[in-house]
Amino acid sequence: MRVGLDIGATKVLGAVIGDGGTVVAQARQDTLPGPDGVLESVTTVLDLLAAGLDGALPPHIGIGIPGIVDRKRGTVSHAVNLGLGGDWFPLADRLADRSGASVIVENDLNAATWGAHVLSGADDLAYLALGTGLAAGLVLSGTLRRGAHGAAGEIGHVPVDPAGGLCSCGQRGCLELLASGSAVAAAWPATGAPSAEALFAAAADGNPQAIAARDRFAAGVADAVRMLGLAVDPAVIIIGGGVAHVGEPLLAAVTAALRAQAAPSPFLAALDLASRTTLLPGAAPVGAIGAALIGNAG
Ligand SMILES: [Zn+2]
Q: Is the pLDDT of residue 150 over 90?
């Protein structure tokens, strides 16, 4: 068994994971900002997990965290939403000192992609994360593809509209501005339920503006799937991230958009991207599972 921690901007989710990806125990805690805050939040989650297991935690901890990660040193920087700036924060060493465990640190998207690989059993996949932003992770022939500069799968910043808005990356009209949680929130501001759930519910009720906004969003996600299909031709494309909590209605809208894109193109139709696109099963903590099991993969 191993411990996996998924550190997000609002929550730290921890889980004790068996070899096949079975979740033995889970705990969560609000994320406190800054190096000391992150370490304290993580320590609290580990204490909660240990309390549920009679005090004994497995001695291997894997962490998925946003930002730039140096896996060899176990350090992280530029995790802006966590209050970690340009200095390298030695998370693995600090946590190993506190816990006595061996600690591996991985970028959160890579960890979630590995979790999708474990949960789906697919050896060749793209994991399309629809969170605040849009990015994909890749496991190709069983190996995690990080890229020469760690930028593999950053398709959210492929510009698709020369007349589009300015993106936080400095380019104009990036795909992320059309197909992400932020894009949904901008198109369909909602109070209470998350924007994506509210948008899909309103569209299902027949609201014409919601149907138009849903279909624009789904077409953007289909663009992302098509990019992945044409660039790396993975066996499956698995959609995850916060927006994926919408569930089957999201998959139905995206696969409908993929079929519409393929209708005039025998070339695209032959790739049958619609039937290769899926959602992760259930509400499994994919980031924590991947962080626990990724080890030195890739
Ligand atoms: Zn961009």
A: no
